[in-house]
Amino acid sequence: MTEIHFKYVNKVYGKNIDKALILLEQGAKNEIVFKETGCQVGLRNINLVIPSGKISCVMGLSGSGKSTLVRHINRLIEPSGGEVWAGDVNVTALSEKALRAFRQQQVSMVFQHFGLLPHLTVLQNVEYALRVRRLPEAMQREQAQHWLNEVGLSGYEASFPDQLSGGMRQRVGLARALTADTEIILMDEAFSALDPLIRTKLQDQLLTLQSKLNKTIIFITHDINEAVKMGKHIAILSGGELVQMGEVEELVNHPANEYVAEFMQFVLDKGEE
Q1: Cα distance between residue 87 and residue 94, in whole Å
Q2: What element of type H or E holds 7?
Q3: What is the DSSP letter of 42?
Q4: 8 Å CB contact between 171 and 151
Q5: Are residues 39 and 17 in contact, defined by beta-carbon separation less than 8 angstroms?
């Protein structure tokens, strides 16, 4: 199983990155960095360990850096400074060839808007990651069919994505990630576009599957109730900065600041209803 470790990771957007990084090192606020350099801060000095074999949630308001953080794991976004490790692999140091292999064999992703290929059938979409690895066709078909059955889509193999409901398309995305059989699964607001009933069913389904698979799942959400339900650990971001990481009880009873306390108050209010 694979632990993920962010070590002093910064991400800055703009032209005067070197000066912006110096200002960040000096502790300058994001507003000062922008005023002095014209650079936007995406992440600032992230030190974070994501435990292996569990679902960890990353949450915060829009623009807090959730997606930016997670996309550093498979280097869809390159850091401006620092390192990201997956187990004993320094992802930030991988060559293009090694990075391609890492993405194919170690990491899969489930997107908010499904990310399915519209010209491929459901079965072909689920097989896709195995096809890229050039596995035998019979093995592709067997594994894809297994996970379609697991997510309740048996009988829809020949359908195309635009013939499915939103919930069914997200099940295809989940089946594709599970078929890839990677140790790490990144889920970026994967259920947020779905109606509440379907969302609850998929949450329950993922938790059931995870109890058997023990994958390292990083689950991005802006919904505190979803985070509490899904995640053993929760990381809360604000302004590109990690405010606090811990289990639910720790965040409720010992919030790092008012920002965390306000987030966790929703949990307390929910429990009193």
Answers
A1: 14
A2: strand 4-13
A3: E
A4: yes
A5: yes
Residue labelled with tokens 């519209």: 118
CA dist., res. 152 & res. 116, Å (int): 17
Measured over the CA atoms of residue 27, residue 31, residue 35 and residue 38, the dihedral's sign is: positive
Could you tell me the residue range of the domain that residue 71 belongs to?
Answer: 4-272
DSSP state of 213: H
List 7's β-bridge partners, or say none.
Answer: 83
CATH code for the domain in which residue 40 is found:
3.40.50.300
DSSP class of residue 190? Answer: T
- Structure tokens, 216: 């390292």
C-alpha 66/C-alpha 79 separation (Å) is 14
- Could you give the count of Cα atoms lying within 13 Å of 233 in the half-sphere of its Cβ? 16
Pairing of strands 216-221, 233-238: unpaired
Angle 112-117-121 from CA coordinates, rounded to 5°: 115
- Per-residue pLDDT of the chain (273 residues), as tens digits, is 689 999 999 999 999 999 999 999 999 999 999 999 999 999 999 999 999 999 999 998 888 999 999 999 999 999 999 999 999 999 999 999 999 999 988 998 887 666 788 999 999 998 887 887 777 888 888 888 988 888 888 899 999 999 998 888 888 888 888 888 899 999 988 887 777 887 888 899 889 989 988 999 999 988 888 898 999 899 999 999 999 999 988 998 999 999 999 888 866 565 444
Q: Output Rg (C-alpha) for the chain, integer angstroms.
A: 19
Residue keyed to tokens 């650079």: 39
Structurally, how many domains does the chain consist of? 1
Q: At which residue do the structure tokens 């209803």 appear?
A: 273
φ, ψ of residue 4 to 5 degrees: the values are -115, 135
